[in-house]
Write a structure and sequence with these properties.
CATH superfamily of one domain: NAD(P)-binding Rossmann-like Domain
CATH architecture of one domain: 3-Layer(aba) Sandwich
Order of helices and strands: EHEHEHEHEHEHEHEHHHHEEEHHHHHH
Structural class: alpha/beta
CATH topology of one domain: Rossmann fold
CATH class of one domain: Alpha Beta
Largest sheet: 7 strands, parallel
Helix content: 40-55%
Strand content: 5-15%
Number of strands: 11
């Protein structure tokens, strides 16, 4: 039986991971959970599974919950997440946290001898070089949960990575894939959150709407598969049926197809190389009828091109970009800035920051703080 620690358990990926576990109760057990402030969802989870350890965001919640659930040990804050990730009594960490907060638990899990099923793309966007060094030093593995990277991972099974000509990361185009730049000026938060294909958390849905998320996925693919940026392409595919493809040197292209349901990549990350039954809808290509593809328009959605730029230049730029994006994304969701100002802030942060090497965790935190401060200043000036 495989023992899991799930961080971000109350979010979309976390809840779907729990669903996968409940579908295979003889194969998985959950030893610990990390959630944020969604205490109501946590209580719901605790009616379905028994866990020994839980971490929440606020200390006051941890104190109150400890009185209600005396059989569970509660932690809180960033230290709580790191404590769970550093524990010895589990087999694989499922990191479904949102944002930069996911980096340190990933690193802690690797350093304590665990593999990681990774849904937190910011871990690699911000600190990919540091994670790569840790994986090599401790002999651990990352298993991708993002649908696109899972598709690439599946398409590479049984093949030599040296034979890969390029990775083709597909993109739905998000909520605004058919809008002009002029139309994008006045879009609302509600419109941005209405993704046509996927049910995701608010932050990643906004990132999908302005293509920042796809830029992050390019950077994530670079580190996951140790592939140079010139071998990573993005292809618009509005149906979200082909989740990504791999072209080999003989021009054979292998693709992974499926309905847009995150439980499949979650389960594969936990069972590879085995495939287990999964209670999800089958793909019916006859019903879909046709699949469409086009090249991304980086003039309409410039953050994708910015991610390539930051990734190629390396150093602290990706961490700065991510930090600025987190702050700007939140400000838009809170109604404090217009949609297009997200890209203005993020682009400004990358272009105006001083390039520094990214060779320590301290340097990573400095870059994150700089990007956050830059974005917050721009947001305050706008208001």
């Amino acid at each position: 039986m495989k023992r899991l620690v799930i961080l971000g358990a109350s979010g979309s990926i976390g809840m779907q991971t729990i669903d996968v576990v409940l579908q295979h109760p003889s194969e998985f057990t959950i030893t610990a959970l990390g959630v944020g402030r969604n205490i109501e969802q946590l209580r719901n989870i605790l009616t379905q599974i028994d866990v020994k350890v839980v971490s929440v965001q606020r200390e006051e919640d941890a104190v109150q919950l400890a009185e209600l659930y005396p059989q569970i040990r509660f932690y809180h804050g960033e230290e709580g997440l790191i404590t769970l990730a550093s524990s010895r009594d589990y087999d694989i960490l499922v990191n479904a946290l949102v944002g930069f907060a996911g980096f340190m638990p990933t690193l802690a899990a690797i350093e304590s001898g665990h593999d990681v099923a990774l849904a937190n793309k910011e871990t690699l966007v911000c600190g990919g070089s540091l994670i790569e060094k840790a994986l090599d030093k401790y002999g651990r593995k990352l298993y991708p949960i993002d649908s696109e990277h899972s598709a690439v991972f599946q398409a590479m099974q049984g093949n030599d990575p040296e034979d890969v000509k390029r990775l083709i990361i597909t993109a739905s185009g998000g909520s605004f894939r058919n809008l002009t730049r002029e139309q994008l000026k006045d879009v609302t938060v509600e419109q941005a959150l209405a993704h046509p294909n996927w049910s995701m958390g608010a932050k990643i849905t906004i990132d999908s709407a302005d293509m920042m998320n796809k830029g992050f996925e390019v950077i994530e693919a670079h580190w996951l598969f140790r592939m140079p940026y010139e071998k990573i392409d993005v292809l618009m595919h509005p149906e979200s049926v082909i989740h990504s493809m791999v072209e080999y040197v003989d021009h054979s292209v292998m693709a992974q197809l499926g309905v847009p349901d995150m439980r499949l990549p979650i389960q594969y990350a936990l069972t590879v190389p085995k495939r287990w039954p999964l209670n999800e809808e089958s793909l019916d290509l006859a019903e879909i009828g046709a699949l469409h593809f086009s090249r991304p328009d980086t003039e309409r959605f410039p953050l994708l091109a910015l991610a390539y730029e930051a990734g190629r230049k390396g150093g602290n730029l990706c961490a700065v970009m991510n930090a600025a994006n987190e702050a700007a994304n939140l400000a838009f969701r809170e109604g404090r800035i217009p949609f297009l100002m997200i890209e203005e802030i993020v682009t400004g942060a990358v272009r105006e920051c001083r390039w520094d090497p990214m060779d320590t965790v301290e340097a990573l935190f400095e870059a994150d703080a700089w990007g956050t401060a830059y974005a917050q200043k721009k947001i305050e000036d706008y208001q």
